[in-house]
Structures are given as C-alpha cells and as structure tokens.
Design a protein that fits this description.
Layout lengths: L2 H14 L9 H6 L4 E8 L2 E7 L3 H5 L3 H6 L2 H4 L7 H14 L1 E10 L2 E13 L4 E10 L1 H61 L5 H25 L8 H16 L2 E7 L6 H22 L3 E8 L5 E7 L6 H6 L4 H12 L3 E6 L5 E7 L9
Parallel strand pairs: 6-7
Antiparallel strand pairs: 1-2, 1-5, 3-4, 4-5, 7-8, 8-10, 9-10
C-alpha cells in the first residue's frame, strides 16, 4: 500500500470511529425534571414513600426526608374536598394500572394545584406500588379561573343588554300601539265623515279601498307591536304561550299543543326569553318541518331550571348533516340565549318523528344579572 492510500485509510477510520458516551446517572435526570418523582408503596390504608426526588420541596414545600419519614406529611396538605378522590383514584389504580389525580394542596408557600400521574402495579396479594410524577399546575388553574371570571362578566353584560333591549322593545311596542293606533282610528273616523258628506255612488269603491288600507295599516301595527313584545306576556308565560300557539295555528295552518307544568314563579326576563325561544322554535317548524302538529312544553327540570321544549311531527333531520352544517340563524339564536343566561341548549329527534329543541334557564335568583 502506498503512503497516500495508507493515510487515506487512516483518515477514514478516524472519521467513523464512535465517540465514547459519557455515563449518565438516571438520578441526575430525575432531579432536573420540573416535578418531583416518587415511588409510593401502599397496602390498604398504609402508605409509605420509599423514593422522593429533591424537587418535592419546590412543589410541596417539604424536604424529601419528610415524605420518606411519613406519608402523612403529604396527606395533611391535601384539601379536604380533594382527599376522597385522591384515595379513590389510588385504590382504583391497582386494577387499572393508571393513577391520575388533580387537586389542591395547602403547602407552606400557599395553596397550590398539583397534577399527579403514576403507574401502579401489584407487588403482593394486598400490596402495590405506584411510580409517577407530581407537577405544580397552579398557573394553569389561575388562567382558567381568570377565563371563567371573564366569561361570567361577559354573560352578565349580555344579560343586562338583553334586559335593556327587552325594555326598549316593550316601550316601542306601547308607543306603536298607542300612537299609531290613535292616528289610524282618527283617520278612519274622518274618512267615515267624508263618506257621509261627500260620498258619491261613483266614489264608493275609492272610499272602500281607503278603509281597507287603514285597516291593513292598523293590523300591521298591531302585528309589529306584538312581535316586539306581546302585551299578553303581562298576563304570564302560560297565557303568552297559548296566545302564540293560536297565532301560529291561524297563520300557518299548524296545530300547536301547549303544556305548562311550572309551579314556581318565573322572573319576567326569563319568562320573556323562554317565550322568545318558543317563538324561534315554532318559526323553524313552520318554515322547514312540513309538520301538521307541534308541541310547546314548559316544565321544571330535575336541577330546578325551567325548560321550554318545542317539537314537531315533521320531516326531522340527520344528526350527521346537522353536525357538519353551520347552525341556522334560529338555532344559533336559541343557543346564544341559553348561553347568556347560563342555561343549556339541546337539539335531538322528537318521538313524534320531527325535531325537538329544548332550552333550560335558571329561574330568578339563580343567575347573575348585571
């Protein structure tokens, strides 16, 4: 072999030679983890930590020695509200092999939320051990709490705006009914007077047409006022629902059956919202369901909320289609009304073959109002 070839072979050998890997102590890796690693042996109610990484002091404010000396030092930190779930999860993990728990702990540094994940294996007839890690997740819960507070504030603001809007609708409905009604009544009286004084046989058709226009304007005013805020709501929710059922039956040739089973008093604003939900539901039935009958039910749920349910015997719907399609304006409006007042919205198939929409709202005193 020539010197140049020999040098080339030596260079290649040097390039591919593996570098030695420094030995890593697993304990060093464990100590660098953000949470503390532990091994907990348990036999019935007897618990004993036989390993706890030094990070336990950063998470719980306790040195590892305190945990190794007595598991009670950890149990004493757990909030009483979360302690039953801690024990239940630990016991269940013997069969499932997984122990997942999250709860509050009163550490020397203040209240903390911790998240525990561990694997459990049986080591004897009644004994087992769990190896896992506990993490401090307090910041995540603080952010979640802030988001919940913001969501509550938004709901209160929306509820207040809805209350103001309903009051404005009521005022506009009264003004429209009173002012426009008075003007049209006066106009009709004047037309009657003109007919008697100056009416000629050849002008009878003209006067009749004017009378029809005045009556049509009066009917339109009453209809718009009723849509803004039906005065029948002043008589109560049941009377308002029955009135609405009659209106839809006349307008759409739809038989509407109403049922009212509410024994408690319902706040005016909540009653109005339930009425609006029923109105949206019946409008959807009239426009899309091709139904002959509809049912409007108002009842109390098991949790004390008051619910309004609208269902029909129409063409129904496909859950897969509804899930993939954007919600209609009516359904979106009902869902938003439920969200504003901390209620719930449900859409499913009716036993009668069509669609069933249900919205449940808290009664007065159970929902925050701005």
């Amino acid at each position: 072999m020539t010197p140049s070839k020999q040098n080339h072979a030596e260079d290649s050998s040097a390039r591919v030679a593996p570098r030695p890997i420094a030995a890593v102590d697993p304990r060093d890796l464990i100590e660098q983890l953000p949470g503390f690693v532990f091994r907990l042996r348990h036999e019935g109610a007897q618990l004993h930590f036989d390993f706890a990484s030094a990070s336990c002091e950063a998470v719980l404010g306790l040195p590892a020695g305190a945990l190794l000396a007595s598991a009670k030092s950890v149990l004493d930190l757990i909030d009483a509200r979360d302690l039953p779930a801690f024990h239940a999860g630990l016991q269940a993990s013997v069969g499932s092999g997984q122990w997942n728990w999250e709860g509050r702990m009163h550490t020397p540094h203040g209240l903390k939320w911790v998240n525990l994940r561990a694997r459990t294996r049986a080591t004897g007839a009644l004994a087992a051990e769990s190896v896992g890690i506990m993490l401090n997740v307090t910041q995540s819960h603080l952010r979640e709490s802030q988001l919940l507070d913001q969501s509550t504030d938004l709901r209160q603001t929306a509820s207040h705006l809805e209350s103001v809007r309903e009051a404005e609708r009521a005022r506009m409905a009264r003004d429209l009914h009173d002012d426009l009604g008075q003007v049209l009544t006066a106009l009709q009286m004047d037309m009657a007077l003109l007919r008697r004084r100056f009416g000629a046989p050849e002008s009878a058709v003209l006067f009749d047409n004017v009378d029809k226009l005045i009556r049509a304007a009066a009917d339109a005013g009453r209809r718009v006022a009723a849509e803004l805020r039906p005065s029948v709501l002043d008589l109560g929710l049941e009377a308002a629902l029955r009135w609405m059922a009659e209106q839809y039956a006349k307008r759409y040739d739809l038989r509407v059956i109403t049922q009212m089973k509410v024994s408690r008093e319902v706040d005016d604003l909540i009653a109005t919202e339930l009425f609006r939900v029923a109105q949206e539901g019946l409008t959807n039935v009239a426009r899309h369901a091709k139904a002959r009958k509809a049912w409007v039910r108002c009842f109390e749920a098991d949790d004390g909320r008051v619910c309004i349910s609208v269902e029909d015997d129409g063409v129904g719907y496909s859950p897969a289609t509804v899930a993939g399609a954007p919600p209609s304006r009516g359904l979106r409006g009902m869902r938003e009304r439920a969200a504003v007042f901390d209620g719930n919205f449900q859409l499913d198939q009716s036993p009668h073959g069509g669609v069933r929409v249900r919205v449940c709202l808290p009664v007065a005193g159970e929902t925050a109002r701005g």
